[in-house]
What does this fold into?
Amino acid sequence: MSLISLARRGRAVALVAGALLLVPLVAEARPGGGRSSGSRGSFTNSAPPSTNTTPGGAQTFQRSAPASPASPSMAGPAAAGAAAQAARPSFARNMMMGIGAGLLGAGLFGMLSGSGFFSGLASLAGMLGFLLQIGLIAGIIMLAIRFFRRRSEPQLAGAGAPYARQGHDAPQSQPAMARMGGFGGGAAAAAQPQPLELTGEDFNAFERLLGEVNTAYSNEDEAGLRQRTTPEMFGYFDEDLSDNAGRGVVDRVSDVKLLQGDLSQAWKEGNADYATVAMRFSLINAVYDRKSGKVVDGNATQTQEVSEYWTFLRERGGAWKLSGIQQAA
It folds into this structure.
């Protein structure tokens, strides 16, 4: 087989590999990647109660590090953030570095032996094709494992008896999530941990964070994300942004508008306050190629609607931060 034929074969294999790498983009666009990630304190392993906004309930967490009993609010998220940073995928990068080193070594060997640099490359072409096929098979297996692992997550039962409804005394000027369907419209959890009363200012903070987190993610603003999320959620966002950078794409989100919201649960746990909110909102979301600026997934002009459960955490006396995102079932 000639060097030209081998090169054509290599290009064809690379095109197929590139198409496979783009497969997860559809499922992983926007903050959270369409996955359920984060923690809900002692309720992490319990599905949040359904609400008028999301009558079908929520999916269980696919990426989570439950908080430790010693520090229910931050110890678990901090550990998860460190784990997410350490667990960033490096298989593909290491494989490509190994292949590149092999190519360079073969070329240099050819030069030293008097056969020429490209003669050395040609002698390695067969092995390169074999390695590329191995990489393709490994990539397909990884995608299949990832797909079936997500689909096999068990659906847990509800958290228990309902809380008293919250938010009926919120002012008329509060945001859409309190007006439309009302935060007071949702069911809530059992008597332990202790229930938490929320105010109109809390509802305003939740709606504001919905927009700010999406904006920071779209701008790849790590400082902004760190300020508005727990260490655990920041670790997941940072991992997703790093994956996008490795693929050569950027995920843009714009025009985020809350359409309806209900309080699912609000409770006190140790020195932390938690609130899980069901939200239905609209946005424009598209994934762009970093070099060409062309849309490779999503639509840059079409509005879509999303329904998710967002859990917020507040250290006593501090500001609310995003602690978890769960997809509506």
